[in-house]
Amino acid sequence: HVQLMESGGGSVQAGGSLRLSCEISLYIYSSYCMGWFRQAPGKEREAVAAHYTGTATTYVADSVKGRFTISKGDAKNTLNLQMNSLKPEDTAIYYCAAASSGNCKTISLVRYWGQGTQVTVS
Q1: Nearest one of 112, 85, 96 to 38, comparing CA atoms
Q2: 20 bridge partner residues
Q3: What's the CA angle centered on 74, arms 68 and 16, to 5 degrees?
């Protein structure tokens, strides 16, 4: 059974858009927060966006602010990341994640990880 499973990655030209979706098992969907991390070659894994379940508020990293939007999907038990105006520096493996505490931006506090989906911007 799926715990967290990303989809929607692929290759896109600079300036283009992609929409990532994360299918999340029901027992994880009520976590304190859920979000997206990414890891580019040679770089540390970093938080890009988070959604806080209790308040329905969101966080978006400065590097993607104004371009990326995190939201719950129309389909139940999904979390989406709409990525517009993509840049080559957005190239990375994107991971869906869920945490039970903290600011949902700290890797060590993540309890559940998806397997990742590759996003390549050229």
Answers
A1: 96
A2: 81
A3: 30
Q: Are 36 and 61 in contact (CB under 8 A)?
A: no
Extract long-range pairs of 57-66: CB within 8 Å, 24+ residues apart. Answer: 59/35, 59/103, 59/104, 59/105, 63/89, 64/90
Q: Which residue has the tokens 């890797």?
A: 107
Pure H helices in 25-114? 26-29
pLDDT of 102 > 80? The answer is: no
Lowest mean pLDDT among 6-15, 35-44, 72-81: 72-81
CB 60 within 8 A of CB 70: yes
DSSP annotation string for 2-38? -SEEEE--EEE-TT--EEEEEEE-HHHHTSSEEEEEE
∠ CA 63-66-77, nearest 5°, is 95
pLDDT at residue 35 in the model = 96
| Residue (of 113, 34, 112, 48) closest to 78 by Cα position | 34
